Description:
The chain is an alpha+beta fold. It has a single domain, classed as Aminopeptidase, CATH 3.40.630. 28% of the residues lie in helices and 35% in strands. It has helices at residues 19-26, 32-35, 43-52, 57-60, 106-120, 136-143, and strands spanning 9-13, 63-69, 74-84, 89-96, 126-132, 148-159, 162-172. Helix 1 (19-26) packs across helix 3. One of its GO terms (molecular function) is acyltransferase activity, transferring groups other than amino-acyl groups.
Amino acid sequence: MVTLKGAKIFLRALEPEDLGFLHEIENDESVWDISHTNTPYSKFILQQYLENAHRDIYDVKQLRLVICNYENETLGLIDIFDFDVKHKRAGIGVLIKDAQHRARGFGKEALQLLINYCASHLDMHQLYCNISEENTQSIRLFQNQGFEIVGLKKDWNFIKGNYKNEYLLQRIFS
Length: 174
């Protein structure tokens, strides 16, 4: 699929071989604040998830794709969630797993590819994301792809004993 191929990376569907990678990400406590996870995931539960990952976005209202470079190295994940056909909108999130792969343009390219896919194949009117006020790198990434801050949710998330603000960013397609 040409739409999901870029200069440095491509996006692909989840495969059974991704179980280990998915298990590492879902059980990495350093990203639980971003994913709003509170408990670890077993390989059994993730295996069941992978067995159902082939289901249609119109049915399950979400799509998770793997970000890979052309050396077939798995770099991260990018998600469409809360897919709403009637209102033609969805949430979007991106995660590059390892620090050595961050700030190298992989997240930017993955986001560009998924935005184009949402506009051309899913006929979306708008995309949104929720980003912690402290996550300036992600805010900048999304703003550089045409997302605008449309609101601040005060004391939105309770993280490690403190309330944190969260921005709502939105991109509307013309």
